[in-house]
Design brief:
The complex is a heterotrimer.
Chain A lengths: L1 H20 L2 E6 L6 H12 L3 E6 L1 H9 L6 E4 L2 H9 L3 E18 L11 H9 L4 E5 L5 H12 L3 H4 L3 E4 L2 H8 L4 E7 H4 L2 H4 L2 E17 L4 H9 L6 H6 L11
Parallel strand pairs in A: 1-2, 1-3, 5-6, 5-7
Antiparallel strand pairs in A: 3-8, 4-7, 4-8
Helix pairs in contact in A: 3-4
Chain B lengths: L2 H31 L5 H13 L2 H12 L4 H10 L7 H25 L3 H9 L4 H29 L3 H6 L10 H10 L3 H28 L7
Chain C lengths: L1 E7 L5 E7 L4 E5 L6 H9 L6 E6 L2 E5 L4 E2 L2 H4 L1 E4 L11 H8 L7 H11 L15 H14 L4 E5 L7 H16 L5 E5 L2 H7 L2 E6 L2 E6 L1 H6 L4 H6 L5 E9 L2 E6 L2 E3 L12 E5 L5 E3 L13 E12 L2 E8 L6 E7 H6 L7 E6 L5 E3 L2
Parallel strand pairs in C: 3-9, 3-10, 7-8, 8-9
Antiparallel strand pairs in C: 1-2, 1-4, 4-5, 5-6, 10-11, 12-13, 12-15, 13-14, 15-21, 16-20, 17-18, 17-20, 18-19
Chain lengths: 254, 223, 359
């Protein structure tokens, strides 16, 4: 019985401790998986505030927030999901365009494709009938999938390539599918493909497509969260974004 | 309502449960009759899909069906297509995924047949095979039916494994459960709801049938 | 003719020698766990002993030296299991039909004949769960016979039925077996059943066959005390043979008894003697007889139990440290002599009936 009391006291103190931790809770699209930790580290060094980030597909995060998930800041991979939250009156303040993400075409070393940014490699392979699978994120709900669809439509091969598509649930799974020997190529976030884990396993080419990265504060956000949102728009962090393959627009607040 | 996904799901579930009839029965027979070394390990391996998260299963299947793997390369050499991200690959994965649901009920009902009944059949002149088909199988068939129905329903509800190794290809690996997930992510709740209700109805009907059937079937197993 | 010789030490001990002629019924008796069912299963081919030989009608069924081990199907045995093991999903006719040879013509006729033989005519379309215990037993028997077996094995077939049904079944089996030209082995723990049905009894204990012989022999004149204990011999006592006045007599406590035969036993050797309770003569007060001079002794009646017309008297023999001797009397004799508990009586032990044996 005594042991029981101690355990309960311990659990309660943990909860209280947690509540007093004052971490900034951020929901971030999966493509920020490599750039955000560096930003967070620099922010934490500067301010001493702690940050906790949850990475997931933008759509998944949106659903969670709509159902009351306790995030303070949402960094999305496109604008549609942000709009949903604005419509649901769950946001505070303006929607910020803080960076642009890019799309790349990636092929693992096993693939024989010679990549080019007008996708001729795919066209030729389709005509010759020797194209294996091509991985894209699900265009129905994933921002990178929608971007890939746009590129394929522009190249005029969207219809022909349908039977060859491997549809991943999110941008991270596209990379994984692309590495399979059953796939010839995949439309992967540029931010992922330049990481050594992926770049060492194949080759890639940047495509002419941008995804507007938008951020918005959520209702009840703390002062520290506001600071973070301001922080990622400053000149000081441009180098981090660029290093990770993002384009930072000229409109930047000091 | 994605009827194509519905068709894929039904086709997959039917093929899996039909395939599991000989496989499950063979394994159940082996386990019920023979006490061999490593029997415990075999039983544990069969039960693994029941306790492992689908992601673990999905991971090993991904690796195991890759074109460079033994199985994958064999399939490519035989058919010219890759095993990964194909309906056949999914069928293979579903057999492993639903294996414990086929083996367990069959094993239980085979074990329920008293050994004296088999021995009486042998003394009456029936060979071991004839004894199995004429005596044991008819007595164990409630368990066999249960096994078939359970593996059908379980395959119908497969999600995590399909998500990892399916590739979501329309008409081939996009099952109803994947279609539901996609609809939810795309905020198409009407679609998600109608498909979910259909899956729920099928599951409810099949499971009720199993329980009702087992209740009314006269228990004539023990002499 | 069925000849069996089995030996093994693991997983259980077996040292079995028995034989049974065609047309004969051999009862294999012993307590639970004695190995009776094991022996039967070995004969049927459901189990294999480590060493031994099983031969039936000049066919070798099992021989460890020549590595012969025929399957139950090859041996052609008819086996009736303790719980009958009827096929629950088949009708009575279906059960029997399964055991008939496939190339036999007129299967329906055969089935009907067999059903008539076991007095189950007209019940062919019933299912086992619709039959009584006695009826199920008959079906099991008919199925065993349908096989045209070379030997019939019955594993405690009457243990699951009530006493009244059992008596009926005993009589039916007795009649039925007269027409069967095959060795029949009946496993039972019931000595009365064995005595009633068997031509020969074989006593088995802890996997070892102790004695095989006619019921009268085994039950009342067992080879040794070990067998005697197994067949529940009443009046079993330790004694010695001594010489007295130039004659060999049995020395028991302070008594010296005349015996009809020493059964090959020597003087001053530890031995056991037994006497059937029905071979003790009561010195009647109403009508004295000559027999009263033969091995007389006095005793006090300690208890009296009457069952179906026989009164068993348990008496404490004088000067034997209260050893109990049992005597069976017809009930009317006990009544006529007005025997009561606590009374002193004198009895005579018939010397010809005293049976001597070693341990």
């Amino acid at each position: 019985m005594r042991c029981c009391k101690y355990v309960i006291a311990l659990l309660l103190s943990c909860c209280i401790f947690q509540a007093q931790a004052n971490e900034i809770r951020i929901a971030a699209a999966a493509n920020l998986r490599y750039v955000l930790p560096e930003l967070v580290e620099r922010f934490q060094d500067l301010t001493g505030d702690q940050v906790s980030v949850t990475y997931a597909a933008s759509g998944t995060l949106t659903t969670q927030i709509l159902h009351g998930a306790p995030f303070e800041l949402f960094l999305s991979a496109n604008s549609d999901y942000i709009q949903r939250l604005v419509k649901a009156a769950l946001t505070e303040g303006k929607v910020i365009n803080y960076a642009q993400a890019q799309l790349a075409l990636f092929s693992s070393h096993q693939s024989k494709l010679v990549l080019d940014d007008s996708l001729d490699c795919l066209k030729v392979a389709l005509e010759h009938g020797n194209l294996k699978k091509v991985a894209i994120a699900n265009p129905r709900h994933a921002p990178y999938g929608q971007a890939a669809e746009k590129v394929l439509r522009n190249a005029g091969i969207w219809k022909q390539i349908q039977p060859h598509l491997l549809i991943a649930e999110n941008a991270s799974q596209v990379a994984q599918f692309s590495l399979s020997t059953a796939a010839d190529a995949g439309f992967v976030p540029y931010a992922h493909v330049i990481q050594p884990q992926l770049s060492s396993l194949g080759r890639f080419i940047k495509l002419d497509a941008v995804l507007q990265q938008q951020a918005v504060l959520l209702r009840g956000a703390s002062q520290q969260a506001r600071h973070f949102l301001t922080f990622i728009q400053t000149i000081d962090v441009i180098d981090i974004f660029t290093k990770h393959g993002f384009i930072v627009s000229a409109e930047v607040k000091k | 309502m994605d009827w194509q996904a519905f068709e894929v799901s039904i086709k997959l579930a039917l093929l899996t449960s039909v395939s599991l009839f000989p496989i499950g029965l063979g394994l159940a027979y082996l386990l019920s009759k023979y006490n061999f070394m490593g029997r415990g390990v075999l039983e544990a391996m069969i039960t693994l899909p029941l306790v492992l998260p689908p992601t673990v299963l999905g991971y090993f299947l991904l690796v195991g069906m890759d074109n460079n793997s033994f199985l994958g390369s064999l399939f490519v050499s035989l058919t010219g297509h890759s095993l990964a991200f194909s309906f056949v690959g999914l069928w293979f994965a579903s057999i492993i995924y639903s294996l414990p649901f086929a083996v367990q009920p069959m094993l239980r009902s085979l074990e329920q047949v008293a050994p004296e009944i088999r021995e009486a059949a042998w003394c009456s002149g029936l060979s071991k095979w004839k004894t199995f088909f004429k005596i044991e199988l008819p007595l164990a068939w409630p368990g066999i039916i249960t096994a078939m129905v359970l593996s059908f329903s379980h395959t119908l509800g497969e999600f995590g494994v399909v998500l990892m190794i399916g590739g979501n290809i329309a008409g081939e690996t996009r099952t109803l459960s994947i279609a539901i997930y996609d609809s939810v992510l795309a905020f198409e709740h009407q679609q998600a709801q109608s498909m979910s209700l259909i899956l729920l109805a099928i599951a409810l009907v099949t499971i009720s049938l199993v329980y009702t059937f087992n209740r009314f079937h006269p228990s004539v197993v023990r002499s | 003719m069925l000849q069996i010789s089995l030996q093994q030490t693991r997983p259980s001990t077996l040292e079995v020698e028995l034989s049974c002629q065609s047309g004969e019924l051999l009862a294999l008796v012993g307590p639970s766990g004695a190995g009776k069912s094991t022996v039967l299963r070995c004969i049927a081919g459901l189990q294999s002993p480590k060493l031994g030989q099983i031969q039936c009608k000049n066919q070798i069924w099992f021989d460890d030296k020549s590595s012969i081990n025929q399957t139950p199907q090859q041996r052609r045995v008819g086996m009736v299991f303790q719980n009958y093991a009827l096929f629950p999903h088949l009708t009575v006719a279906g059960n029997i039909q399964l055991a008939l040879d496939h190339n036999k013509q007129h299967t329906q006729q055969c089935v009907d004949t067999l059903l008539a033989q076991v007095h189950l005519g007209g019940l062919g379309q019933r299912y086992p769960h619709q039959l009584s215990g006695g009826q199920q037993q008959r079906v099991a028997l008919a199925r065993a016979l349908a096989r045209s077996p070379k030997a019939l094995l019955l594993d405690e077939p009457f243990s699951a039925v009530d006493r009244v049904t059992r008596r009926k079944l005993y009589l039916e089996l007795n009649t039925l077996r007269r027409g069967l030209d095959m060795p029949i082995i009946l496993v039972t723990h019931d000595l009365d059943e064995a005595a009633m049905l068997a031509d020969n009894i074989c006593v088995i204990h802890q996997g070892k066959t102790l004695q095989q012989g006619k019921p009268a022999q085994v039950l009342y004149k067992p080879d040794n005390a070990a067998v005697a204990r197994q067949v529940d011999v009443r009046n079993l006592f330790k004694a010695k043979l001594v010489e007295h006045d130039g004659q060999v007599k049995l020395s028991w406590h302070d008594y010296l008894f005349e015996v009809g035969s020493t059964n090959g036993l020597s003087l001053n050797q530890d031995l056991y003697w037994t006497l059937s309770p029905s071979k003790i003569l009561l010195h009647q007060r109403v009508r004295p007889s000559h027999g009263e001079h033969e091995n007389p002794l006095t005793a006090v009646i300690n208890d009296m139990v009457t069952l179906r017309g026989i009164t068993t008297i348990l008496m404490l023999v004088d000067e034997t440290d209260n050893t109990v001797l049992q005597m069976d009397l017809p009930e009317h004799v006990a009544m006529r002599n007005q025997l009561k508990i606590g009374e002193m009586i004198t009895v005579s032990l018939l010397s010809e009936e005293i049976h001597l044996m070693k341990e």
